[in-house]
Amino acid sequence: MKYISTRGKAPACNFEQVLLTGLAPDGGLYVPESLPRFSESEIASWAGLPYDQLAFRVIKPFIDGEIPDDVLQRILSESYQTFTHKAVAPLRQLDANEWVLELYCGPTLAFKDFALQLLGRLLDYVLTRDNKKVAVLGATSGDTGSAALEGCRHCENIDLFILHPYQRVSEVQRRQMTTIAGDNVHNIAVRGNFDDCQRIVKAAFGDQSFLPSDRQLVAVNSINWARIMAQIVYYFYASLNLGGPLRPVSFSVPTGNFGDIYAGYLARSMGLPVNQLIIATNRNDILHRLISDNEYSLGSLEHTLSPSMDIMVSSNFERYLFDLFDRDAEAVTEFVTGLGHTPQKLKPDQWLRARELFSSLGVDDDTTCKVIGQVYADTEFLIDPHTAIGVHAARVCNKDSSVPMVTLATAHPVKFADAVEKAGLQYPDLPEHLQDLLERDERYDVLDNDITAVTDFMQSRL
Ligand SMILES: *Cc1c(COP(=O)(O)O)cnc(C)c1O
Fold it and tell me: Which residues lie in coiled coils (predicted)?
């Protein structure tokens, strides 16, 4: 399996190379040169498999023998053993044909654990085998950071640098990162927003000359292909548990960087019958404006009750554009770099194709709280604000009530106390393994919103 860049000016790579990097050298994102396709009967034969064994079948073609099968199986089994629910990704029913897929049973209580428990172990295996050291660098809007630290902190060959926007993540989110001890763990609060953090990370990847010569940067954001790959699995899992592939399923996905929903798009492209894919955003709604009005333009970043989706420009959308533009790398480059100075538009036929597949909705904070309250009143089930946005979009955008509609529940409500309290509900208890979180010692550095401030800091710690 070869991986190529969406900007068309970087050499093709194998799996290990894309695992150990971030952006392609031309600024693009890596995608598989071609996707594996599974037949309906093959998918049907996976019904009833435990999560890790299903993951093995879905992921294997992407790794293409670079990691021996028995090692991959062991790594997958260990990755998903850290989850507290035996089903790993349990489904919960909200209404006659409406479901949520609970993706927050991992160690840090958000869906990011699905990818980062695996990524940490894959990195550890490859780095130990090759006797190599790397620096992991990531920006987080709140949940990636703790999941990456939790997934990689035991790896002796990794130093971890995680940037979060200063005072823009919830207290539980911050403490989940800053209370992790370890000489290889470095939390940096940047005086800026998430897009600033993401910009600094991209710039550091673009020029790695500040690193010691034997080091390279590895991404833990969803620009890393391995993260997307891991997330494809739960679309198959949910479908198989709802009668797929013999009947289609629809998904509503709370969206920030477009990673999670892009994994759903890939699952569909690999043969899984998916009816609708719904892009559910908060007021940072650039993708909703594109799907509904063919307007792709920057706004100002809004801070909302769903901070993990407070993202202006969704990195992974470029991967989808690459397909939508029939893999014309030049057109992709023009579209995504053009956004910096002028609003962009899709060609009419492209817009039509995008709208055939994706529905979208932007949801404000008031509605988010109302939906949290409503779902609780109807089912005694407490959902987090990101999930609430997904549930609302699912209800508004549903085109066919006979198709099961699954909203991805991306985080546990305990991470987002503000929204739960604004919804007039009682704040849920922290789970057992985090009971003393608010008393633990914190460790982090606050730096200016400046690339050199961050790279100098990293240099001093490596
Ligand atoms: C990261 C995150 C999202 C957004 O996922 P993307 O892959 O960036 O679209 C949504 N909800 C929660 C809770 C998250 O942590």
Answer: none
pTM of the shown model: 0.96
CA of residue 281 to ligand 1 center, whole Å: 10
Query: Which residues lie below 8 Å from residue 153, measured CB to CB, with a gap of 6+?
Result: 120, 160, 180, 182, 184, 185
pLDDT band at 22 (very low <50, low <70, confident <90, very high): confident
For the annotated catalytic residues, the residue numbers are 112
Domain membership flag for residue 145? no
Which residue type occupies 240? L
Residues with CB under 6 A from ligand 1: 110, 112, 143, 222, 254-260, 308-309, 386, 410-411
**308 CA to middle of ligand 1, Å?**
6
- Residue 34 domain-assigned? no
Instruction: Please choose, from the candidates 394, 294, 390, 307, the residue with its C-alpha nearest in 3D space to the C-alpha of residue 349.
Output: 294
**Closest CA relative to residue 158, chosen from 207, 110, 119, 189:** 119
Ligand 1: centre distance to CA 167 (Å): 19
Domain count, the chain: 1
pLDDT digits (tens, 9 = 90+) for 397-441: 999 999 999 999 999 999 998 899 999 998 888 888 889 999 999
Q: CATH number of the domain at 250, please.
A: 3.40.50.1100
Q: Which atom of ligand 1 is nearest to the CA of 311?
A: 8
Could you give the CA distance from residue 149 to residue 135 in angstroms, rounded to a whole number? 12
**How much helix, strand and coil, in percent to the nearest 5, is found in the chain?**
45, 15, 40
Report yes or no on 442 lying in a domain: no
Q: Give the residue numbers spanning the domain of 417.
A: 86-106+225-422
